From TrEMBL:
Transmembrane segments: none
Taxon lineage: Bacteria, Bacillati, Bacillota, Tissierellia, Tissierellales
Domain ABC transporter span(s) in chain numbering: 6-236
The protein's name in its UniProt record: Spermidine/putrescine import ATP-binding protein PotA
Catalysed reaction, written as an equation: ATP + H2O + polyamine-[polyamine-binding protein]Side 1 = ADP + phosphate + polyamineSide 2 + [polyamine-binding protein]Side 1
Transport listed as a keyword: yes
Amino acid sequence: MNNTIIDLVKINKSYDEDIILKDFNLSVHKNEFLTLLGPSGCGKTTTLRLIGGFEKPDSGKIIFDGKDITEHPPYEREINTVFQKYSLFTHLNVYDNIAFGLKIKKTPKTEIDEKVKEMLKVVNLKNFENRKIDSLSGGQQQRVAIARALVNEPEVLLLDEPLGALDLKLRQGMQLELKRIQQSVGITFIYVTHDQEEALTMSDTIVVLKDGVIQQIGSPIDIYNEPKNAFVADFIGESNIISGVFCEDFLVEFSNHIFKCVDSGFSKKEEIDVVIRPEDIELVNSETSMLKGVVKSTVFKGVHYEMIVEVEGFKYKVRSTVSKEVGDFVGLDISPDNIHIMKKVIK
């Protein structure tokens, strides 16, 4: 049984002489929360607009539930979009904003009333029917925009950085709310963001993009713990990326020390990159440690201290609940499963 709802097949898209997407392929599954993640200009919003029908590819196909919709305009697609600017009607109350699309379709009044009230429950705005848009907080306005999109019962909801205008605390709360809503309505969400925390918090699947090319597709855990290359490792959270040499299966050398690791399949004496997350480095007594270094800086981050420790010329970023002073000699230990080996990218 095919669980795919959208297939982008060999998509090419340029603006003037700028190539945005080249031979781009992506499959999206039904009831999936998929996030397109990457820096500005990587092609994520263009991908979303192609799926929504707001742009047409120069070549390639967009397949929706087995049917070619490449030439279909937005209103002929079972897809709705929530943009960063919600574009709510300020002269209408919450009820009429949500009901707007249904009224355009000439849906019977009793059905409109039933659907709007059900959607208000889904987005946690019960009894807000008569509120004016201007009286709502940013988070409440965003929920109205989502309800207005979902009330038309699309198969797919596209969200283009909808949390960007919210403050940090509200944004974090809405991340969890969006995931709850997606699970409640049981449809496919395709979400665009450059915020790694948003992607890791909400997604079933993350697609990491750079310069219009997919760098990695995987679950948040896979993307974070098993990055495919240095760009993904550095973009998803923070990483120490150290040049090293693969000795043999399960042994690697870097910072003038041979470590046990869990990787295999590389060539002996192959030059590789080693990725180690700052929180995966343990501060220990320098007399018995794998690595020895000097603390160059210490910053208190609230739940942990972030330190720069210089070892053999490389400056390791270390996160620990234990504080050390600048100039202290410290030991660093790294367990085998916290050492991730990647192919070295030849520039």
